[in-house]
Amino acid sequence: MKIFERDFILKDWNAVCVGLGKGWITIEQVIIFCKEGKILCSDDQLADAYVLADSYSEEALNEFVQNMGVDAENVNIEEDCYLFWAVAFLMDIIASDDSKMSKLDKVSFLYMDFNYPQSWSDFIYYMPVREGAPSGIDALYNNMITYTENSIKHLLDRGILLKNLILQ
Protein backbone atom coordinates (compact mmCIF):
# COMPACT_ATOMS: atom_id res chain seq x y z
CA MET A 1 0.00 0.00 0.00
CA LYS A 2 1.26 3.42 -0.97
CA ILE A 3 0.43 4.86 2.43
CA PHE A 4 3.19 2.75 4.01
CA GLU A 5 5.70 4.04 1.46
CA ARG A 6 5.14 7.63 2.60
CA ASP A 7 7.01 9.59 5.24
CA PHE A 8 4.75 9.09 8.25
CA ILE A 9 4.25 7.10 11.42
CA LEU A 10 0.93 5.38 12.12
CA LYS A 11 0.26 5.89 15.80
CA ASP A 12 -3.17 4.25 16.17
CA TRP A 13 -2.81 0.57 17.02
CA ASN A 14 -6.59 0.19 16.62
CA ALA A 15 -6.12 0.98 12.91
CA VAL A 16 -3.54 -1.81 12.74
CA CYS A 17 -5.98 -4.25 14.35
CA VAL A 18 -8.77 -3.21 11.99
CA GLY A 19 -6.44 -3.86 9.06
CA LEU A 20 -5.53 -7.26 10.46
CA GLY A 21 -9.13 -8.16 11.18
CA LYS A 22 -10.29 -7.18 7.69
CA GLY A 23 -7.33 -8.85 5.97
CA TRP A 24 -6.02 -5.53 4.64
CA ILE A 25 -2.58 -6.09 6.18
CA THR A 26 -0.78 -9.22 7.35
CA ILE A 27 0.87 -9.73 10.72
CA GLU A 28 4.18 -10.11 8.88
CA GLN A 29 3.69 -6.67 7.33
CA VAL A 30 2.83 -5.23 10.75
CA ILE A 31 6.09 -6.59 12.17
CA ILE A 32 8.09 -5.14 9.27
CA PHE A 33 6.40 -1.73 9.56
CA CYS A 34 6.91 -1.71 13.35
CA LYS A 35 10.61 -2.51 12.92
CA GLU A 36 10.92 0.19 10.22
CA GLY A 37 9.25 2.71 12.52
CA LYS A 38 6.26 3.20 10.23
CA ILE A 39 3.89 1.84 12.87
CA LEU A 40 4.46 3.10 16.39
CA CYS A 41 4.25 0.15 18.76
CA SER A 42 5.48 -0.78 22.19
CA ASP A 43 7.85 -3.66 22.85
CA ASP A 44 4.88 -5.63 24.22
CA GLN A 45 2.82 -5.03 21.07
CA LEU A 46 5.73 -6.10 18.88
CA ALA A 47 6.26 -9.21 21.03
CA ASP A 48 2.55 -10.05 20.74
CA ALA A 49 2.80 -9.63 16.97
CA TYR A 50 5.76 -12.05 16.84
CA VAL A 51 3.84 -14.59 18.93
CA LEU A 52 0.84 -14.25 16.63
CA ALA A 53 3.05 -14.69 13.55
CA ASP A 54 4.63 -17.85 15.01
CA SER A 55 1.35 -19.51 15.96
CA TYR A 56 -0.85 -18.00 13.29
CA SER A 57 -4.41 -19.19 13.03
CA GLU A 58 -7.65 -17.42 12.22
CA GLU A 59 -8.74 -17.94 15.83
CA ALA A 60 -5.50 -16.46 17.21
CA LEU A 61 -5.83 -13.45 14.92
CA ASN A 62 -9.44 -12.86 15.99
CA GLU A 63 -8.45 -13.13 19.65
CA PHE A 64 -5.55 -10.71 19.12
CA VAL A 65 -7.82 -8.16 17.44
CA GLN A 66 -10.56 -8.58 20.05
CA ASN A 67 -8.05 -8.18 22.89
CA MET A 68 -7.25 -4.77 21.41
CA GLY A 69 -10.97 -3.92 21.71
CA VAL A 70 -11.51 -3.51 17.97
CA ASP A 71 -14.60 -4.67 16.10
CA ALA A 72 -13.28 -5.33 12.60
CA GLU A 73 -16.66 -6.47 11.31
CA ASN A 74 -18.65 -3.28 11.90
CA VAL A 75 -16.93 -0.68 9.77
CA ASN A 76 -17.74 2.93 10.65
CA ILE A 77 -15.71 5.28 8.50
CA GLU A 78 -16.39 8.09 10.97
CA GLU A 79 -14.01 6.30 13.33
CA ASP A 80 -10.40 7.21 12.68
CA CYS A 81 -9.17 3.60 12.71
CA TYR A 82 -11.36 2.91 9.67
CA LEU A 83 -10.79 6.28 8.03
CA PHE A 84 -7.06 5.50 7.97
CA TRP A 85 -7.71 2.45 5.78
CA ALA A 86 -10.13 4.32 3.54
CA VAL A 87 -7.42 6.92 2.96
CA ALA A 88 -4.84 4.18 2.35
CA PHE A 89 -6.99 2.58 -0.35
CA LEU A 90 -7.96 5.91 -1.91
CA MET A 91 -4.30 6.92 -2.08
CA ASP A 92 -3.47 3.68 -3.91
CA ILE A 93 -6.26 4.32 -6.38
CA ILE A 94 -5.26 7.95 -6.93
CA ALA A 95 -1.60 6.97 -7.45
CA SER A 96 -2.44 4.29 -10.01
CA ASP A 97 -1.94 4.83 -13.74
CA ASP A 98 -5.59 4.03 -14.44
CA SER A 99 -7.95 6.46 -16.12
CA LYS A 100 -10.08 8.70 -13.92
CA MET A 101 -13.16 6.64 -14.78
CA SER A 102 -11.40 3.39 -13.91
CA LYS A 103 -10.29 4.90 -10.60
CA LEU A 104 -13.84 6.02 -9.83
CA ASP A 105 -15.07 2.54 -10.71
CA LYS A 106 -12.61 1.02 -8.22
CA VAL A 107 -13.79 3.49 -5.59
CA SER A 108 -17.39 2.39 -6.15
CA PHE A 109 -16.40 -1.16 -5.14
CA LEU A 110 -14.47 0.16 -2.15
CA TYR A 111 -17.57 2.16 -1.18
CA MET A 112 -19.34 -1.12 -0.45
CA ASP A 113 -16.43 -2.44 1.66
CA PHE A 114 -16.71 0.62 3.89
CA ASN A 115 -20.49 0.27 4.34
CA TYR A 116 -21.50 3.05 1.96
CA PRO A 117 -20.25 6.13 3.84
CA GLN A 118 -22.35 9.23 3.21
CA SER A 119 -19.16 11.30 3.12
CA TRP A 120 -18.21 9.59 -0.17
CA SER A 121 -21.40 10.41 -2.05
CA ASP A 122 -19.75 13.37 -3.83
CA PHE A 123 -17.37 11.05 -5.70
CA ILE A 124 -19.44 7.92 -6.28
CA TYR A 125 -20.46 8.13 -9.93
CA TYR A 126 -23.83 6.42 -9.59
CA MET A 127 -24.98 8.65 -6.71
CA PRO A 128 -27.22 11.62 -7.54
CA VAL A 129 -25.34 14.90 -7.85
CA ARG A 130 -26.24 17.50 -5.25
CA GLU A 131 -28.19 20.40 -6.69
CA GLY A 132 -25.83 23.08 -7.94
CA ALA A 133 -22.74 20.85 -7.63
CA PRO A 134 -20.52 20.30 -10.67
CA SER A 135 -20.94 16.96 -12.39
CA GLY A 136 -18.87 14.76 -14.65
CA ILE A 137 -15.82 12.57 -14.28
CA ASP A 138 -13.40 15.43 -13.58
CA ALA A 139 -15.63 16.88 -10.85
CA LEU A 140 -16.07 13.50 -9.16
CA TYR A 141 -12.35 12.78 -9.35
CA ASN A 142 -11.50 16.20 -7.89
CA ASN A 143 -14.02 15.58 -5.09
CA MET A 144 -12.24 12.31 -4.30
CA ILE A 145 -8.86 14.04 -4.14
CA THR A 146 -10.26 16.80 -1.92
CA TYR A 147 -11.88 14.24 0.39
CA THR A 148 -8.63 12.28 0.63
CA GLU A 149 -6.55 15.39 1.36
CA ASN A 150 -9.03 16.57 3.99
CA SER A 151 -9.07 13.12 5.57
CA ILE A 152 -5.27 13.10 5.76
CA LYS A 153 -5.37 16.48 7.50
CA HIS A 154 -7.98 15.12 9.91
CA LEU A 155 -5.83 12.08 10.73
CA LEU A 156 -2.82 14.35 11.29
CA ASP A 157 -4.84 16.70 13.50
CA ARG A 158 -6.14 13.77 15.56
CA GLY A 159 -2.64 12.32 15.99
CA ILE A 160 -3.39 9.11 14.09
CA LEU A 161 -0.63 10.02 11.62
CA LEU A 162 2.44 11.84 12.90
CA LYS A 163 3.99 13.10 9.66
CA ASN A 164 2.54 14.66 6.54
CA LEU A 165 1.54 12.63 3.51
CA ILE A 166 1.81 14.08 0.03
CA LEU A 167 -0.57 12.87 -2.66
CA GLN A 168 0.93 12.06 -6.02
List the helices and strands and how they pair.
Blueprint: H1 13-22, H2 27-35, H3 43-54, H4 58-67, H5 80-95, H6 100-113, H7 137-157
Helix pairs in contact: 1-4, 1-5, 2-3, 5-6, 5-7, 6-7
Task: Provide a count of the helices.
Answer: 7
The ordered string of helix (H) and strand (E) elements is HHHHHHH
Biggest sheet statistics: none
Beta-strand segment tally: 0
Binned strand content: under 5%
The average pLDDT score comes to 84
- Kindly provide the radius of gyration, computed on alpha-carbon positions and rounded to a whole number of angstroms: 17 Å
Shape: elongated
Helix content: 40-55%
What is the multimeric organization of the chains shown?
A: single chain
The count of domains is 2
Low-pLDDT runs: 164-168
Q: Which structural category fits the helices and strands?
A: mainly alpha
- How widely separated are the two ends? 14 Å
Can you give a write-up of this model?
It is a single chain. The chain is mainly alpha-helical. The protein has two domains: 2-67, no CATH class; 80-157, no CATH class. The protein is 55% helix and 0% strand. It is built from seven helices and no strands. The chain has helices spanning 13-22, 27-35, 43-54, 58-67, 80-95, 100-113, 137-157. Helix 1 (13-22) runs antiparallel to helix 4 (58-67) and helix 2 (27-35) runs antiparallel to helix 3. The longest helix has 21 residues, at 137-157. It is elongated. It holds the Pfam family DUF2247. This is DUF2247 domain-containing protein.
